[in-house]
Amino acid sequence: MKGSELKNLFLHHVGQTSGDPMGISIERAEGCVIHSTDGREYLDCISGISVASLGHSHPRIVEAVQEQAASYMHTMVYGEHVQGPQVRLARAITEAIGCGLDSVYFVNSGSEAIEAALKLAKRATGRRQTVSFKGAYHGSSHGALSLMGDQHFSNGYLPLVPGNTVLDYNDIQGIQRIGAEHAAVVVEVIQSESGYCPAKEQFLLSLQERCRSVGALLILDEIQTGFGRSGPLFAFQDTALQPDMVAMAKAMGGGMPLGGIAASKKLMDHFTEHPVLGHITTFGGHPVSCAAALASLGVWQEEIDKGRAQAIEKGLRKRLADIPQTHISGKGAMLALHLGSSKRMWDNVHRAWDKGLLIDWFLYNDAAFRLAPPLIITDEQLDVISETLHELLA
Ligand SMILES: Cc1ncc(COP(=O)(O)O)c(C=O)c1O
Q1: Closest Cα partner for 332 from 359, 305, 304, 313?
Q2: How many CB atoms lie within 10 A of CB 82?
Q3: Contact 143 CB / ligand 1 (< 6 Å)
Q4: DSSP assignment of 136-147, as one string?
Q5: Closest to 218 (Cα-Cα) out of 208, 226, 228, 210
Q6: Which pick of 67, 195, 203, 281 has the fewest CB atoms within 10 Å?
Q7: Which pTM was predicted?
Q8: Strand ranges in 134-189 using DSSP code E only, listed in sequence order
Q9: What is the side-by-side order of every strand in the sheet holding 365-371?
Q10: pLDDT digit string (tens) for 25-44?
C-alpha cells in the first residue's frame, strides 16, 4: 500500500487527536533517524516526546524483545506470576534510584503511574486532597487531568476528581498552603509541557520540608525527565531530594509501553490489604516491555557517556546562541528554544519538517520548539539541527 493511501486510511479509521497531525508515514526508524514511506529521512529532535532516549530500535533492545516474545508474553494479570524480566527490572530500578525506594509497581503508561501514585497516597495517609502546580501535565486520565495546571484541556471533562489545589510552580511562599489535609503533592523536577522549565532546587527542598512537616507524600513525576534525559537516571538525583514516590514511564520501556511507581516497600504494601488489590492492571509490567526496559537500562548504564546529556545541552546552547530573538530553557537533552511568539513557531515548524528536522512544540507553550533528541545524537547531527534552525530563523 502506498504512503498516501495509508495516510488517507489513517485519517479516516484511526482516531485523531488534532485536525493537523504530523502525518509522516513511517517506514522504519533507526538511531536518530526516522525514514518515511516516501523515501524521506527525518532527524528526530523529539524522541517521540522523551521516549526514544537511546534512539530508535537499539539492537540490544530489539534482541531482548524478540527473545522474550519467543519465551513467553502475557501469562497472568499483574502481580500473580513470578516473571524474571519484571523481577530483574524492579531490582535494577530500585538499586539505581536509591533513597529507600525499594519496590516498583508496574503499569502501562505515565497516566496510569500517576493514578496509582495518587491512590497509594490516599490509601497510606487516609487523606483525600492533593496538590499540583500551574503548568503541570501529568496525563490524560481523569485523576491525572484533575492535577492539570492548565484548565483549557480539562474543563470539558468536569467533574474531575475533587480536592486538588493548584499552586504556583517555583513559588516558595505558596507552599505554605500545603497542610495536614493533603495526601500528596505531585511535582515535576523539570516542568515539561510548559516548555522545559526546571524547578529551583530551593523550591523543591522547601516543598519536601513542608510535605514532611504536614505528613503529605512527595510524588515526583519523572515520566518525561526519567531515564537519563536531563543527565542522571532521574532528574531528582541532581538534587538533595528524597521523594516518597517516583512516577516513571516513556523512556523506561526503551520504546515499549511501560510505566511504574517506585516507593518504599512499606508504603507500597498499602496496596495489598484493606481491601486487597489496591491497584489492578492486566498488562502492567508486561514481560516483553520489562525485558525491553531491562535492556534499555543496561544500554544507558553501560553505553551512554554520563556527561552526554550535558554535552548535548552545551552543544546546542552554543550553536544556537546567535539566532536572533530566541532564548533556551531546560536541562540536558530536554531543551526549549523560545521564539518570542507562537506565530514564529507555526510559521517555521512545517518548514523544519520539510527540511528533514523533526521538532514540535509544547502542550502549553506553542511559542517554543522542543529540542529533545536521543542521547545518542552525534555532534555532526547537532550541526545539522543548528544549520536547519539557523536557515529557518536567522
Ligand atoms: C510529565 C508527564 N507526566 C505524565 C505524562 C502522561 O504519560 P502517558 O502519556 O504515558 O500517559 C506525560 C506524557 O506526556 C508527561 O510528559
Answers
A1: 313
A2: 6
A3: no
A4: ----SSHHHHHT
A5: 208
A6: 67
A7: 0.98
A8: 164-167, 182-187
A9: 327-331, 334-338, 365-371, 360-362
A10: 999 999 999 999 999 999 99
From-to residues of CATH 3.40.640.10 in the chain: 60-303
Cα 138 to ligand 1 centre (Å): 5
Question: How far is the centre of ligand 1, averaged over its atoms, from the C-alpha of 186 (Å)?
Answer: 13
Which grid coordinates belong to 48? 517521540
Range list for CATH 3.90.1150.10 in the chain: 3-54+305-393
Nearest atom (ligand 1) to Cα of 257: 10
Q: pLDDT tens-digit profile of 79-102?
A: 999 999 999 999 999 999 999 999
Give the CATH architecture of domain 3-54+305-393.
Alpha-Beta Complex (3.90)
The pLDDT of residue 318: 98
Nearest to 255 by CA among 64, 394, 70: 64
Architecture of the domain defined by 60-303? 3-Layer(aba) Sandwich (3.40)
Q: Is the minimum distance from the CB of 115 to ligand 1 under 6 angstroms? A: no
